[in-house]
Design a protein that fits this description.
- The chain is of the alpha/beta class.
- It has three domains: about 5-60 and about 265-325, Sandwich (Immunoglobulin-like), CATH 2.60.40; about 65-250, von Willebrand factor, type A domain (Rossmann fold, 3-Layer(aba) Sandwich), CATH 3.40.50.410; about 370-455, no CATH class.
- The protein contains twelve helices and 20 strands.
- The strands form five sheets. The protein has a six-stranded mixed sheet with strand order 7-6-5-8-9-10, sandwiched between helices.
- Helix 4 links the parallel strand 8 and strand 9 (about 205-210).
- Helix 1 (about 80-95) packs antiparallel against helix 2 and helix 5 packs parallel to helix 12 (about 435-455).
- The radius of gyration is 23 Å and the shape is globular.
Length: about 475
């Protein structure tokens, strides 16, 4: 009995128009095992990947409206070119907005100021131009000075986003900071709790760290717990590019809140989910994916322990993918993240393995995409371990861990002929060569960005050093 990988194209109603079979961009869902063929009687580790890919948006007018708060650090350390570059980048982002998008602008230092309350871009072109000019003029008033009340700035941004939370909007906070949070809650744990809470509301927080003095642990945890992006911006010249990448990602979202359910069978045991938080209850795994943008892929990757006695053609897992929605969303053509699941899954199917005595046959049938994902996630974990070793002063041990990871990635890049694995190998090689105190500050931020981007399949801002 054969259990092929399954791919299905689902037309999800995540646009502003009435639902039709041709209007919304489809989402492709694929489930596959890394080793659909295993050695007879051997058992062992296998990987199951459920991937969701957004199709290309051909009609920009049909994209999902954006509901975004731009939160800007205006503390004393931002004085001069930094604050001017931040204002230019924010204004450039405003120019990208389309009718029905909603935006607010918040600036924070010791206190927090709502520079521009949440306002929607009108369908009427004249009114839209007037609104944009109002926002741009408000941004021009921002000046730098004071301390850094980062937690309060994000909280105020969330308050503005909540004013326009409704079905079918992409709710996002884009936070820029160049320094340490020193007013109000300021630990990575406290910001992670805030990110988790906002994520449950369907609000992603993207964090942009500018320069070498911000707390990358704090910003990366705020982003990752809300399923936002985290970018390290090493120069003011890169600010425009960072905002463009973030708004480009947000403005092409085609699906939100997909839930992946994996039920292991025949003695197969779920060991863990790599890269994402998940609920594992005995044989059942539940993972929630974040925003899926056009032509981008996000996935749930489950490590499985397959028993040695599994028969040829034996089932490994039943997989289903669900989309939460409410009555309003079905009527309006919008789909929204809400508690609960749809009454029927988008896809529901079974995966199993064939057994073979031939290792060559096992290798020939290896699924490259699944195994590349597994290599990337394992390497991100090793990178994180190496960073912890460096933080604890074990510099040589950290160096060897980075170098080992570089070799692991390079060997697998050759095995699977994958360019991204080669780039990841270079990132770890750079880390190994830059552990001295004067270089570690930059290096650590680079590695933190790499970890978050890999684990969440998020946006990574390319640097010349990589």
């Amino acid at each position: 009995m054969r259990f092929p990988k399954l791919m299905c194209a689902i037309v999800l109603a995540l646009t502003g128009a009435a639902v039709s079979s041709a209007a919304p961009p489809p989402v492709k869902i694929e489930a596959a095992l890394g080793n659909p063929v295993m050695l007879s009687g051997a058992g062992g580790t296998n990987y199951l990947r459920v991937a969701v890919t957004g199709d290309r948006i051909n009609d920009a007018s049909r994209r999902v409206p954006l509901n975004v708060a731009i939160v800007i650090d205006r503390s004393g350390s931002m004085q001069g070119e930094k604050i001017e570059a931040a204002k230019r980048a924010a204004k450039s982002a405003i120019e990208r907005l389309r009718p029905n998008d909603t935006v607010s602008v918040i600036a924070y230092e010791t206190s927090v100021t709502i520079v521009q309350p949440a306002i929607r871009i009108d369908d009427n072109s004249d009114k839209a131009a007037t609104t944009r000019q109002q926002i741009l003029s408000a941004i021009d008033t921002i000046t730098a000075g004071g301390s850094t009340a980062l937690f309060a700035g994000v909280s105020m941004g969330a308050g503005e986003v909540r004013k326009e939370i409704r079905s079918g909007r992409i709710n996002r906070i884009v936070l820029l900071s160049d320094g340490l949070a020193n007013v109000g809650p300021s630990s990575p744990g406290e910001l992670a709790e805030l990110g988790t809470s906002l994520g449950r509301e369907g609000i992603c927080v993207t964090t942009l760290g500018l320069g070498l003095d911000y707390n990358e642990d704090l910003l990366s945890r705020l982003a990752s717990t809300s399923d936002g992006n985290h970018m390290f911006i090493d120069s003011v010249e890169a600010l425009d590019r960072a905002y463009a990448m973030e708004f480009g990602d947000a403005m092409t979202v085609v699906a939100r809140g997909l839930k992946v359910r994996v039920e292991c069978v025949n003695g197969v045991r779920p060991v863990r989910v790599l890269g994402r938080d998940a609920i594992i209850d005995d044989k059942t795994v539940l993972v929630t994916l974040g925003d899926v943008s056009s032509e981008r892929t996000k996935y749930a990757l489950v490590e499985l322990d397959v028993p040695a006695g599994l028969p040829d053609g034996g089932g490994v897992a039943n997989v289903s993918v669900w989309y939460p929605f409410d009555t309003e969303s079905k009527a309006s053509g919008y789909v929204m993240v809400l508690p609960g699941m749809s009454p029927t899954p988008l896809c529901s199917y079974s995966l199993g393995v064939r057994m073979s005595q031939s290792k060559d046959e096992v290798d020939r049938n290896t699924n490259k995409a699944v195994m590349v994902a597994a290599v990337q996630q394992i390497a991100a974990e090793k990178n994180e371990l190496a960073m912890r070793l460096r933080d604890s002063g074990k510099i040589e041990e950290a160096r060897q861990t980075f170098l080992s990871n570089q070799s692991f990635l390079f060997d697998n890049s050759t095995r699977y002929n994958d360019e991204q694995l080669r780039k990841d190998a270079d990132t770890n090689g750079f880390a190994a060569d830059n552990l001295d105190p004067e270089k570690w500050k930059y290096n650590r931020k680079l590695q933190q960005e790499y970890q978050v981007g890999t684990k969440k399949q998020g946006v990574i801002l390319e640097k010349s050093v990589r």
